[in-house]
Amino acid sequence: METSEERQFDCCPPFDPGPWDNQVKNWENKTFIRDKVATFLYMPLNFGGVMRRLDKKVRQAGAGVPDYLCLSDHTSKWNMDLYLAVDKNIPGAHNTTLSGQYFSKVYEGQFKDTGKWMKDFEVAAKAKGITLKKTYMWYTTCPKCAKKYGKNYVVVMGQV
Predict the structure, then answer these.
(1) Which site among 83, 105, 129, 142 is 20 to 30 Å from 46 CA-CA?
(2) Assign residue 96 a region: left if phi > 0, alpha if psi is -120 to 50, beta otherwise?
(3) What does the alpha-carbon distance between residue 75 and residue 90 come to, in Å, rounded to a whole number?
């Protein structure tokens, strides 16, 4: 696992959908740091600034970000909580853990398709006999990197 300083890319790493598409992950006290993003009708207003703030804390702690995983929890039209996976507790951050089973499915396309993705995700979970407790979004790359790579992958993850 590489640290922020060892990255071989300018911004977001390329995303491999294989390990995340139509999978169930088992997490036991998976470590994250949490922060809040202001939103307007679910549209993030300060996402980049929050990510830079989290990245700075991770770098200062000499920590890594496993899989560059960052879950978004849209708690209302006005707020989104971010959960950035880390490999150790980070001083000065809101450290938290997630445990349990999480069903994930990968989508690719424009963010305007989020409603379609969510409906499809619910159908896919139901077909597997999965009852979802909570749903998160993982925006795997920033818009600039999605354009650079030619793909805008988004992973929907649901706690089982």
Answers:
(1) 105
(2) beta
(3) 24
Q: What is the 3-state secondary structure (H, E, C) of 25-67?
A: EEEEEEEEEEEEEEEECCEECCHHHHHHHHHHHHHHHCCECHH
pTM of the model: 0.89
Distance CA 23, CA 155 (A): 11
User: What are 75-131's pLDDT values in tens digits?
Assistant: 999 999 999 999 999 999 999 999 999 999 999 999 889 999 999 999 999 999 999
Per-residue pLDDT tens digits for 2-41? 444 444 556 889 999 999 999 999 999 999 999 999 999 8
CA atoms of 65 and 149, how far apart (whole Å): 21
CB 37 within 8 A of CB 46: yes
Cβ atoms within 10 Å, residue 62: 12
Q: How far apart are CA 126 and CA 56, in angstroms?
A: 40
